[in-house]
Every structure is written in C-alpha cells, then in structure tokens.
Amino acid sequence: MNRIIFTITFFLCFVLKGFTQSDTTDLLNQLENEVLGNEKDRTSYTTATFKTTRLIDGHTVENVGKGVLDVKISHRFGKINAGVNELFGLDNATMRMGLDYGITHFLMVGFGRSTFEKTLDAFFKIKLLRQSSGKRTMPVTVSYVPTIALKTQKWEDPNRKNYLTSKLAFTHQLLIGRKFSEGTSLQIMPTLTHVNMVQLAGDPNDLVAIGIGGRQKLSKRMSFNVEYYYQLPDYKITGTSNALSIGFDIETGGHVFQLHFTNSQGMNEPAFIANSKGLWEKGDIYFGFNISRVFTLGKGK
Prior knowledge:
This protein has 301 residues and is of the alpha+beta class. The chain is built from 2 helices and 14 strands, in the order αβββββββββββββαβ.
C-alpha cells in the first residue's frame, strides 16, 4: 500500500513539475516578446551628441531647447609666439558676444557681434534629421545652418565709391553628426562661403571647405574636442590656412566653460573657415575660451 501511495505521489509531482516549468517558460517567453515588441514599436532618439551648440568655433548638431536663451561670450587672446613682452598673447584680446534662442526644439536663431573686424553676424539652425533607433532608425543627426556676416569697420579708402553689400559674406553649412557611444561623437561639416568682395584679383568669391570635428568624454563633466576645416585648393583665398582648433569642455553647474587653442583669430564662419591665416608650425596660435550660460524664458513644451 505504501509503495502504491509513494508511486502515485511521485508521478503527480513529476507531472506538476512539467506543467510548472512549461507555464513559467511560456510566461517568460511572452514577457520577452512583449518587451521586444514594445521596443520595436517605440522610437528612441539620441541625446547629448555634443555638450553645447558649438564645438569650438563652429556649430554642432545640438540646438538649444524651445524658449531657452543661450548667452555666449568668446575670447581670443593674441598669438602665443608674440613672446614674453606681450605675455604670450595675453596682453591682446578680441571677443564675440552672442545670443542664441530656441524657437522650437528643432529651430533656433542667433545673433552676435565680434570686435575682430567689428563684425555683426546672424544665423538660424534647423534640425532636418535626428539619430534614432527602434521603430524609426536613423544613423545620423543632420542640421542646416545658413549664416550672414557684415563687417562694420571703416572703409580703407573712403574717397572712392563704396557699397555696403561689399562687406557682406554668407555661409551655408550642412552638419552631419553621429554619437557612436556615450563618450564618443563625430561630425562632418561640408561648407560653402560666399564673399561679396575679395581683396586680390583672381581670388574666388565662392569658397568651399570640408570640416570634421569630434568630442571624446574624459569624465562626467569634461571632454576633449577637436575641429578642422580643410579648404579645397581651387576655392580658397590666397594666403589663408586651414583652421585647426583643439580644446576642452568643462561643465560647472549652469555654465559650460570651453578652453581651446586655435590658429584662427576670427569667431564667425567667414573669418575662421575661409580667412584663417595662422600657422601652427610657426606658433601662430591663439589661446581662448568660450563661456555659455542658458536661461529659460518660456515653456519648454
């Protein structure tokens, strides 16, 4: 009798165990399928490809948020090779003050004034594509930035007939960026600059450059940045050089503090992309910094 009871009990336990394992496996598979299904039905957008809207001199694919005002103050000291008498360039400085504002989450506008050649500049930036995964997969973020710059310094020869339009320059940039990992981001920047008046006969009015830039995070609040613009030989002004800048982003609360070294003294697109004249190998290097402070003026939604 005991053997019969033991055999029945053992058989029931074996059957129940099989059902339990089957139910558990089915439940886990169901949950896994639901999670994967939800991920496939949802689009996840990449954020913080770069720390700010500027890499060093040039734009990044980042925008300020809707209703956010970004106040930017940029300084460039003199050339390091000026020597100890000029305190390695620290005795001299140029600056740019800019105001950037987010109209929507994909459209921003900006305005600035530089002491270098007393230049006014304005731009807008519109985000065309956004890096994403899931239901909608997009490998890169793409932005378009047109810029206008006006030199307001006095005419070299005021006695001749001068036109205000001669001091205008226009730049068109397509920014193509990708965040490869939490710490590494790259972007390329094909650029067309049109200068209404050139100094030397034979120089082109249309200038073409290809920019490349990158960011590598070093810590939670610090990153290393590099930016380079290569000018196509047949589409560059005589005596200019390719702009190369390296620097660091340091986040301090509501500020982003950028330190950098560059061979370009100008801080607007026609100046640093198409009219840089410094040579790194000769020590024509300018130390500078940017400070960015944001203020929320409107509702972000």
